[in-house]
Amino acid sequence: MTYLSAKKIKVSRRGFIAGSAGLTFAVAVSPKGASLIGAAEARTSERNVGAWVRITPDNKVTIITPAAEMGQGSMTGVPTVLAEELDADWDKVTLEMAPAEPKVYGYTMTRRGRSRKLMGIFGSHAIAYYYNDMRIAGAQVRKVLIAAAAKKWGVSKASLTTEPGRVVHKSTGRKMTYGEISAFADVPAKMPAVAKSELKKKSQFRLIGKSVPRRDIPEKVDGSAKFAIDVHLPGLVYAGTLHAPVQQASPQSWNDAKIKAMRGVVDVVPVSHGVAVVADTFEHVLAAKAELKVEWAKDAMAEGYDSEASLEDTYAKVAGSSSAPSKTVKEKGDVGAAFSKTKGGKIFRREFRSDYGYHAQMEPLNAVARFNAAGDGVEVWEGTQAPGISRRYIARALGLETSQVDHHQMYLGGGFGRRSISDYTVEAAVVARQVKRPVKMIWTREDDIAYGMFRPQTYQCVEAALDASGKIAGWKHCVVGDGPRLTVSGIKLDRYYGIPNQLIERRGQSHGIRLKHWRAVAHPFNIFAIESVVDEMAESEGLDPLEFRRQRMAMNAKAKRVFDKVAEMSKWGDKRPKDRAVGLSVSERSGSLGAGVVEISLDEKTGKIRVHKVWAAIDGGTVVQPEMARRNIESGMIYGISSILKERVTIKNGVVEQSNFHDYEVLRMSEAPEELHVEFIDRSTKPTGLGEIGNPFIGAAIANAFHKLTGKRLTHMPFTPERVLKVLKG
Q1: Cβ atoms of residues 289 and 255 within 8 Å
Q2: Model confidence, pTM
Q3: Among 19, 27, 324, 354, which residue has the fewest nearby CB atoms (within 10 Å)?
Q4: Helix, strand, coil percent content, the chain, rounded in steps of 5
Q5: Dihedral (C-alpha) 687, 688, 689, 694: value to the nearest 10 degrees?
Q6: Whole-number pLDDT of residue 343
Q7: CA-wise closest residue to 330 among 554, 493, 510, 463
Q8: What is the β-pairing status of strands 472-481 and 501-508?
Q9: DSSP 8-state symbol, 280
Q10: pLDDT digits (tens, 9 = 90+) for 354-405
Q11: What's the CA gap between 111 and 495, in Å, rounded?
């Protein structure tokens, strides 16, 4: 399977339904929701209809997979759920990519009482959100196959069962393959209902909980996998954009004639916050960009912005001001009373800082766009986390209807939230319309960082109150930063601790810097602050950090399970080598809960922290594909260590100071931990998100281990050698 095959399905959707041999099951969408229907109804239906499952006489089962593949395995993981309930022979299953039609292929997301259909693969939700729909659809198709076999053999449906790819009549030993059934059976006008009790029990699973190989790996190993940058079209030209050095400034004038006279240059096209150069080769694009001189408007909000000064001075003042505008994110109990009635108890106060973070996805941002001859329709090829959102975004930017945007989903070389918005694809389309030729837009690493969409920097003030018995009584947490949900997500104490009185506030500061959801969004820096303060309270009470959490933080049962498990895995109480120390922290993200431990050492001369071992115990409900999940979590650990020790973006006079990986440093392979250990709590509950749970605990666990080694507290992430040395000298 290749992502290019999505085009075949999309272009001939109704033809696919009408003309395929065998059995085809489609999804129809109505105001009442999505339902599985047969081909006959699909041919005449006026509703949104899309093929979903196809079984052909050669025993092939084709399943449409709606999950964007960016290296996390969802493209394979989501269809295994349908194949499980269908009792399909996984070796006979072929996957094809779903078109960008969320109304047909999207999951339902309900937030604040509002439901909508999305195909966005972000927030670690792919398997969790598709799980129920996929199970029901697979069970319905299995019922149809059993009914057809029962009629053929003249036996009762109840006397039949299935084994992978076959219907079996045990009393006579007769078997019929799904392919054989597809040669004579019809899909009923109305698909059979499936009760929850009819779904497989956990003990019956063959695919769920049993790792299968990822279907995208062979193509990526042999080089045949197609990314957008691999797309070549007749007449294709290349484009690159010089964006404003001060983010979101607009171009006023440029040396147009000189650039157009350069070798290979086809055109120069202004876009919203930049000027695009179009040429016959990308080398000619780069050469022309280097000569491009642009006068930029001076009215951008980010003009003159200094991120470090703002974080140190302005944010601190905002946090300390009782009159600064603030928004209450959560209020529970009586916080005032909890902090005023601490006779015999203790109050703890600590401030934390975190810098801007860049996504650092491996594949540079790129897309291909081609307008039709009439100029009223555009095809785009891109790797996006959210194909449905991308179609709407592109259409809106071009003044088109969504139906006028033909979208081809490609593999993604990493996403981390950055590829859920298609600004680079919009530029490709704008330029393609101007030059009337297919355009491949490529943003270099330098382009991407300079015009990046970052995790916001934050300043946090945390106060915690212990009562006279030393138990947690109250919690106040204020976050100063830009971007509402990008700064306060992850302060979800009730998901693991029982704190009776809480006040969570956000104090916004806007600077005109582009921001975006980033690996686990705000959880890493918020959990870093929370768990650092918890560790400090434990030390004050003279208790081991784990024992303090058990005795004083009113952990719920789920939290106890993950902490107990990680203590067992890491041999928490064991003595470590003299130059090593361990620290622990809770981890929470996308409905999953975990606990993590790291073992570190410190070079006190250089200030470099080295993480040697990491352990994590995770409760993610039913784990559909354990090996894929484990690798995702290990990846989260590595990226978490990278962001905590190295990654930072700074902005001076409105201009991003970093330009590539020489000054935006990421963890090198030689710096990776020697050991990573992940174990899952055995659960039968619905799956929850696992893609990002490996990241949030890293910061606090390292900081707490550092304190054990040195007696000092780290409060500003990332923990660069310069900051570590400063703390050691303090």
Answers
A1: no
A2: 0.93
A3: 19
A4: 35, 25, 40
A5: -100
A6: 67
A7: 493
A8: parallel
A9: S
A10: 999 999 999 999 999 999 999 999 999 999 999 999 999 999 999 999 999 9
A11: 18
pLDDT at position 29 over 70 = no
Give mean pLDDT, residues 530-554. Answer: 98
Tokens 């157009």 found at: 260
Beta strands in 573-640 (DSSP E): 581-589, 592-603, 608-619
Identify which of 460, 573, 550 has the alpha carbon closest to the alpha carbon of residue 507. 460
Query: How big is the CA angle at 513 (ends 667 and 368), to the nearest 5 degrees?
Result: 75
Number of residues in the chain: 730
Label the pairing between strands 405-409 and 378-382.
Answer: parallel
Answer yes or no: are the C-beta atoms of 416 and 518 closer than 8 Å.
yes
Q: Give the integer Cα–Cα distance in Å for 100 and 64.
A: 12
| CA gap 339, 477 in Å, rounded | 13
Question: For residues 271 and 254, what is the distance between their CA atoms, to the nearest angstrom?
Answer: 13
Tokens at 488, concatenated: 């306060």
Contacts (Cβ under 8 Å, ≥6 apart) of 135: 81, 82, 84, 85, 199
Is the Cβ–Cβ distance between 282 and 240 less than 8 Å? yes
Strand-strand pairing, 458-466 and 439-442: unpaired
CA distance linking residue 233 with residue 428, whole number of Å: 14
> Which two tokens mark 541?
């009470």
Contacts of 459 (CB under 8 A, 6+ apart): 311, 315, 316, 318, 319, 351, 352, 353, 479, 480, 481
Tell me the sheet residues that pair with 411. Answer: 227
How far apart are alpha carbons 672 and 675 in whole angstroms? 9
Rounded mean pLDDT, 93-107: 88
Centroid of chain to Cα 245: 28
Whether residue 4 is predicted with pLDDT greater than 50 in this model: the reply is no
In sequence order, what are the residues at sequence separation of 6 or more whose Cβ sits closer than 8 angstroms to the Cβ of residue 82? 53, 63, 88, 134, 135, 137, 138
Tokens in use for 93?
Answer: 């299953």
Instruction: List the one residue out of 661, 671, 662, 664 whose CA is nearest residue 647.
Output: 664
Q: Are 390 and 423 in contact (CB under 8 A)?
A: no
Rounded to a whole number of angstroms, the distance between the first and last alpha carbons of the chain is 58
Lowest mean pLDDT among 2-6, 96-100, 425-429, 651-655: 2-6
pLDDT exceeds 80 at position 467? yes
Report yes or no: 718 and 598 within 8 Å, Cβ to Cβ.
Answer: no
